[in-house]
Amino acid sequence: MAEGILQRVANGDQEAVQQCIDAYGALVWSLARRYSPSLGDAEDVVQEVFIDLWKSASRYDPAIAGEATFVTMITRRRIIDRRRSASREPARSAADLRELPLMGAEAAPGPAEQNEEAQLAAEALRQLLPEEQQVIRLAVVDGWSHSQIAAHLRIPLGTVKTQVRRGLIRVRELLGASARPDTAEVAS
Amino acid sequence: MNGRAMPHDQRIQQLLADRATEGLDNTAEVELSNWLDANPLADADGLELAAAAILIALGERSVVSEPLSESVRIGIRRDARVFFAGKDVAASASPVGNALDQNRRTGVSVRPLPAIYRIGWYAAAACLLLAVAGWLPGVRTMALRSGTDRPPASASIDGFTRVNPDVTRLTWTPNLPEYQGVSGEIIWSDRAQSGFMRLSGMPVNDPTIAQYQLWIVDPRRDERPVDGGVFDISGGGGEVVIPIRSKLLVSEPVVFAITREKPGGVVVSAGPHLLVAAVR
Questions:
Q1: Is B193 at the interface with chain A, CB within 8 A?
Q2: Chain segment A162-179, per-residue pLDDT in tens
Q3: What ipTM describes this predicted complex?
């Protein structure tokens, strides 16, 4: 089986580095732009994420998840870290986060490009109660803190945390049940 | 999901879920890292991957008005060249094995300091002061603060030094009279781009008034110290151990310094430097 981009990056393939930027630059940029308070902040995020990718490429295992999912994980991790460090609470209105001008050329992958994990995640979420789905969406997609969610929905913080935990574990279980066939092992 | 087991401990499950959504504070991050260190077969990334899959599934198609700028693309490619050049240097030290194996077997040698730093650590600190004074306004924010940054995978120092043989240990030297009682060290790995700070006797700070900020000087970067993050010292006495991670790639830092800044830290520090740790 042909090596993926991240596996080749881990092996020091310089051509793969450029291919990684070309393949995932738009994804990282769209996430950074969505969750950053400014253009400059988003640019910092993108640079930091790619450094994280160079460091993490050797840990990527195609048997666990697709490259887009791995890249999204690395990007979210960096965005969350920056948000905490700036003690910055996300906008209360979900709409605030989505008001990006619709004039551009670069776009995040849409439904037609959703990968296998995304489809399984959507299926797992459909199995949750509506209120649990709402909590997961606010926490993961809208980036609200658990305290914000609790205040907005007027439910105990502990309930929010439990619903987030159970929801993520449920998605993880479904992803694990449909694990990809073993491919080349990646050195850790 | 990956042959690794989800922890049965509900506390650990919650920490993993919190990390995958809103992040963890330093104390919780260290707790989780310690647990994962002690349980290497546990699934450390599963919930974050699940969250990523959810985001891809539910995140609406976002069209941004401005594409990724060419200057950022250039910066990404530059960082990649520096990063992989470092791996190549390590690999060339031995004819056999991959780059990571090379680092483990041979370590990373400390290259001679540029002349400006060879005149002693006092001069190095003075140079840092000059560099601080000369910092240009509008320097891009050097990113996030270590108070919430993810610590190295091996939160224990012993474990960290075991897996990173290139570790450098530098002793803190107080620079101001009121910090003369402070002792400790920096433990840093170029390969991991992370490490620890050990501090004893550091005065307590009120984070609503001021926070300590770590700076990392890498002469091969653009002469501007890299922000190592802000941190707080709370009451209780004793030694504190703080995980640190550079937000930008540093190749061979020669000076670490701590300043005291407004809450959240600053992009440009006016000093003074409370503590300095320099390569001799």
A1: yes
A2: 999 999 999 998 888 765
A3: 0.84
